[in-house]
Structures are given as C-alpha cells and as structure tokens.
Amino acid sequence: MTKQLIQKAPFRADHVGSFLRPARLKEARAQFENNEITADQLKQIEDEEITKLVAKQKEAGLQSVTDGEFRRKWWHFDFLSGLDGVEFYETDKGLSFKGVQTRAHGIKVTGKIGFSTHYMIDHFKFLQSVAGDAVAKFTIPSPNMLYFRASIEEGVYTNDEELFNDLIVAYQGFIQALYDEGCRYLQIDDTSWATSFSEEGIAGLKEKGLNVEEALKLSARTINESIAKKPDDMLVTMHICRGNFRSTYITSGSYELVSETIFGGLDVDGLFLEFDDERSGDFEPLRHISRRPDLYIVLGLITSKRGLLENADEVKARIEEATKYAPLEQLCLSPQCGFSSTEEGNILTEEEQWEKIRHVVRIAEDAWK
C-alpha cells in the first residue's frame, strides 16, 4: 500500500461494517417472510434505510460507509449461498456461542462452486449510488468460511484441493465484477484464524484432519490466491473475528500462534484485529509487522458488544502501547467487530452504537493529530 492509498483507506477512524437493524427494517423483513409484502416492497424499504444509514455514518465523521449489511440475515451465509453450487438450508442446530446458540441455518455445497453472477453486486451498486463523497466499502466473508462452515454433498468433490481451486476462481470472478462496478475498498471477514487461538479450536481442526500449521498455510493460500488478480488500485483488508452474536463470542486467545502468518504471509493491505478485552492477549504479536512496512493494522479497541463507552485516555494509552511493536503511522482505530453480524444484533441501543462510532472518530482525531 502506498502512502497515497492510506489517505483513502483504511482510515484512522474506520469500522468493521455491520450496524443494528432499525425497527422499520426488522418489521419489513418479518412482513416479507409472512408474505404480507412483496420482494419489491421490501427492497424499497431496504433502500430507504440504507440511504439513511449512509447519511448517519457520514454525520458521525466516518470517511468510509457500508450498507450495514442491512439486506443480510447472516454476515457469511447470505454471500456464500449466492455462489454457484452453494445452497442455504435449515440445519438440525445452530452455531454455539458462549451461552447462546444461533438459529439453525447453514450452507451446503451441492454442485461445483463457481461464479457466473451474484446478487450482491447489485447491493454494492446501490451503496455506491448513495455514498456521495464517502468511500463505499463492501464486506464479504472469507473463502475460508465456506470450507469451515459448509457441508459438502458426497460425490461433488473428490478432495479438498479440487474444492479450493474452484472456490478461489469463484472469488476472483466476484472481486473483478465488484471492481468493474467501482469498488475500491473491499473487506474480507474471517473467523477461521481464531480456531488456532484456543485448545477448543485446535481440537476442531483435528476433526478436519488438520494441524495448526496446515490450517494456517491453507487459510493463507486461499486468501492470497483469491485476491491475487485484483487490480492494484483496489484496496483489500481483512477482519479477523473471534465470533460475534448477541454480544457473545466463540473463542479467546492471543494472536501469537498465527502472528507470523497474518503479519508476514498475507497479501492484504490491512488487518482489522480485535483488541477490546483480555481475550485478545497483548500487542506483542504485532512485532512481526516489521516484515510488512506497507501493512496497516486497525486496532479494534472499542467494543461493539456493549454500550458503555471506554475511557478515551485509556484507549489512547493502549494505542501508545501498541506503538512499542508497530509504528503509529501503520495503525488505525475501529470497533472490534460489527454491531450486527446477524440480523439479531448485539445487545446495545442504536444511540449507544452511534456514540461508539463518534467515540472512535474523536479519539482517532486526537491520537493522530
């Protein structure tokens, strides 16, 4: 990333992307599912609410805007099921978070994975049309999420290599199509790295026949090859998440085990990392950024899981602490995750959400003045 690009994104005050769904949108989606309104009527309400959301993001001081993922139920399943050969379906049970379980939804691979078209291209086109002078940022799940979350019907693929080859080509196709529509800021969201943070996650890898080293190589290869053909003026960041559902999480642990790979082995332009509490460990893993002087780290020091504001001086002190391992000019600030990774949303109010965003902007203006 050149110095010129950092003036565009990631910004000193940035955000992960999803926002709490307003009551009107929740009501409309329920009406649609009950066949009380048409798909066109739902889309009209989504368009109107996204337009309002973009204005609020700009009013709060953000320079990049998203559609808040307002058209999605899930941050990942909705996108992945839009690829050729992938279907959304009802499962026997939901995903398990600390003390809570999600709805019983999932995705399955029923045919060869590919990209011919994707309905979310239109989602970006609308966002771009209302972004104005802000940068329209689009968020998609990592290709790794299909491997770690999808069931594969027997006989579709004879081995993982075939699956990954098709998955990478599909992502390359989508990214190029998104670029052709004007996208210059893409964020890839990925929880697969967090499987290497804890004993629970490592046990899950073993069930797939992988050890930590193999999993890291696989995840890095998939990301790098998926973005390998992106045009030079398209900036790609990645958010490494530890789970975010109804203000709960899946895993804890330091970045240490994955630090050499994510800071030295990924071809992304920036990393959004969760550092909002003790579950994330300390900043020492950032020392590996010395291998990538062009990599930007967006410190997720403001939590999206609860409404209480962090002490601004303490946040600035933590930014200063991070500079022991990474130069200030390579650091930025954001909430640790989105506010609504699924349509249920985290447990805080919309006003608390916006005060969090304004808090990020105010602190960043002071820390990088």
Automatic annotation (TrEMBL):
One of its GO terms (molecular function) is zinc ion binding. It is an enzyme of class 2 (transferase). The keyword Transmembrane does not apply. Pfam families: Meth_synt_2. InterPro entries: Met_Synth_C/arc, UROD/MetE-like_sf. It comes from Psychrobacillus soli. Keywords: Methyltransferase, Transferase. Residues 15-344 form the Cobalamin-independent methionine synthase MetE C-terminal/archaeal domain. NCBIfam families: PRK06520.1. GO terms for biological process: methionine biosynthetic process; methylation. Its EC number is 2.1.1.14. This is 5-methyltetrahydropteroyltriglutamate--homocysteine S-methyltransferase. The keyword Methyltransferase applies. Gene3D superfamilies: 3.20.20.210. It comes from the Bacteria.
